[in-house]
Amino acid sequence: MGTKARWISSVIIVLTIVGLIVLWEFNKPDKPDVWGYFGSTPESMKGKSFNSIDEAVDAFANAYAEEAMVNQYDTYYNVTDKFNKQHQIPGVIMFKMAVDNEKNEILHAAPFYINEKGNKYSVIAEGISGSSERIKESPKYVFFTQPIDNHVYDFIISKEKKYLPRTDTVINLINHKLFIAIDCHDRFQEEIE
Asked: Could you tell me the keywords of this UniProt record (predicted)?
């Protein structure tokens, strides 16, 4: 009986230790160090439209990066059926920008929106952000919200895809080893709720 009791208590101790390790791994803070950057549409891009999405995004990103005074950047967007139907496709420009008197660089995510009208594409950005009660705080991701026209967009950035909530699209920010989830909601529906 004494050996059996030792065996059971050893198993309980091992399971407790394993459980605590799993709990720690699941809850340890692992937020990516990314800040939202909210700049407006560059003057040089206002009223311009292009024949393709890529052409519009490239021209916009160049003008935007010039205004933000950054040399290197990456653009990411994903065309989905939902975004096509609303004629507005969200995306982000990712770039590092100096903070703390130029000593440290932090990765920034700047949202932009591709608008389609008559098979022509234009790109806009808004210098505003908002808050959302839909997205819960988590030690695994950072998020920001931006209202644009009749929609509210949530941008959720995580180091691992599995920690992202269900959204309209998830984009692999491959050059930064991150994932961004983008969700779109009707602005007026949100005000009613």
From this structure: Membrane, Transmembrane, Transmembrane helix
